[in-house]
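User: Could you check the structure of this?
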Amino acid sequence: MNRPAHHSAAYDAAGVEVHRPVPLAPVPTAPPAPVQPGGIPSVASIILPDGRVVTGYAINPAHPEPAAAKPAVSRTAVNIALGGAGFLAVCGGLVLLTSFIAALTAFITQLIILAAVIFGGWIAVQILGANGLQGGGTTVNIRKAVFKRNHFRG
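Assistant: Sure, the predicted structure tokens are below.
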């Protein structure tokens, strides 16, 4: 079995393998690093109470980038512009609604006229049907082969 180098294995009373960490060897202390020239950041070293030395780059505070210059627009101007856009949207919606209502009214009117024409035609057929006009229609006598309207004489 491969074990990491920083662990030692031992077995407890039940035969289970128990790992215990092994402390690392102390790091030798180093003298502070000299200051670097201007282009390279300087390295800082700190000596801890137990004698270890921590070395790293000094952290400069982050400076936020300046905000982009925005033209000054008053809230009143923005509110007026938004109100105007809203008013135009409402007007456009009302125009569409009015057009729809006009088209619907014309359609219903046409349906009423169509129903009146069909119903009137039906009533005319009922009134002027077989009993309505006597002698004014086309007379056909098959036995004698007489067709009045077409002037056919047999």
